[in-house]
Design brief:
The structure is a single chain. The protein is mainly alpha-helical. It is 42% helix and 7% strand. The protein is built from 6 helices and 4 strands. The strands form 2 sheets. It has a two-stranded parallel sheet. A two-stranded antiparallel sheet has the order 3-4. It binds a DNA duplex (13 and 13 nucleotides) through helix 2, helix 3 and strand 2.
Length: 109
DNA sequence: TCGATGACTATAG
DNA sequence: CCTATAGCCATCG
């Protein structure tokens, strides 16, 4: 574990995402101060969510609103289904009305 | 320390 | 809407 702060901050921000809202990797990365590490955000999440049901990683999508991380969830209970249960409409691995549902950490806090 | 990897992003065609 | 390319950076072996 080197910069464990990075991973911990990512987890915390994800947990702060309101139900029925989504955010992007870039937004999280920029909020914690590492603007260019959007990729690492997703990478760390994949390793951190394992064994944690308190991390709503399904609310994190890429800048296009695509569910780029759905393959990290169980095929029986996929990311798309979880979002729909929160009132978010998803079609073809893409969040509908993504811009309106997008949650900005630094803006809301 | 180094090289490869990836749940990314922006730009260009 | 699509693919291609380049930049980006924490993590892993």
């Amino acid at each position: 574990m080197t910069s464990q702060n990075f991973a911990e901050r990512v987890i915390q921000v994800v947990q702060l995402i309101p139900k029925g809202r989504v955010t992007t990797y870039g937004a999280i990365a920029h909020y914690i101060g590492t603007g260019g590490s959007a990729r690492t955000v997703g990478y760390v999440l994949g390793n951190s969510i394992e064994g944690r049901m308190d991390v709503p990683a399904h609310r994190v999508v890429n800048s296009a609103g695509l569910l780029s991380g759905r393959h990290a969830f169980s095929p029986e209970y996929p990311m798309e289904q979880r979002l729909r249960e929160e009132g978010i409409e998803v079609e073809n691995n893409r969040v509908l009305d993504f811009k309106n549902l997008l949650w900005h950490p630094a803006l809301e806090l």
